[in-house]
Amino acid sequence: MAEGSVLKIPDQFDETTPLRVAIAARIAFPDGSMCAAGLRKERDAGRLETELIAGKEYVTLLAITRMRELCRGRRKGHASSGAAKAGKKTERSETKLDGLSAIEQRSSALAAAKKAIQDLKLKRRSRPTSPASTTERAVPKMS
Fold it and tell me: Which residues are CB-contacts of 13 (< 8 A; sequence separation ≥ 6)?
């Protein structure tokens, strides 16, 4: 099958029929703008539900539709609202972090954990790498 070719879903299938991720991507995104890797990223982000059957990953067109609905609600607002210039206080959002903010939070937690492990390793005393000396050195006499 050629890359970017459009696939039609057969009549006996419906939106709950499990399809291999690559095939589902070609059906759901016929312009080729989304591939299997993109759907797997959405799965990893928790927005796409897939099934692992006999070591192969499947997804339904209904699951892709749900993922698209979740993605529609994630549009970001402007980086600056101008409220600071107007002297207005902005309210703090109580929503869970998405996208890069969540990744940065996980990355900083991972960095802190790695640093703590490194610190523990440095605090432990290393074993001597040279064998213990068994002979005494002759000290020259001073006259």
Answer: 19
State the Cα–Cα distance between residues 119 and 139, nearest whole angstrom: 41
Q: If residue 58 lies in a helix (H) or strand (E), which one and from where to where? A: strand 56-59
List all residues 6 or more positions away from 125 whose beta carbon is below 8 Å from its beta carbon. Answer: none
Q: Mean pLDDT over residues 40-54, rounded?
A: 95
Quick one: pLDDT at residue 127?
66
- Tell me the pLDDT tens digit for each residue of 48-103: 999 999 999 999 999 999 999 988 876 666 655 555 555 555 555 555 555 555 56
HEC string of 80-125 equals CCCCCCCCCCCCCCCCCCCHHHHHHHHHHHHHHHHHHHHHHHHHCC
How deeply is 52 buried, as exposed, middle or buried, from its count of CB atoms within 10 A (0-12, 13-18, 19+)? Answer: exposed
What is the C-alpha separation between 96 and 27, in angstroms, rounded? 32
Average pLDDT over residues 30-50: 94
Strand order in the sheet with 51-53: 19-20, 56-59, 51-53
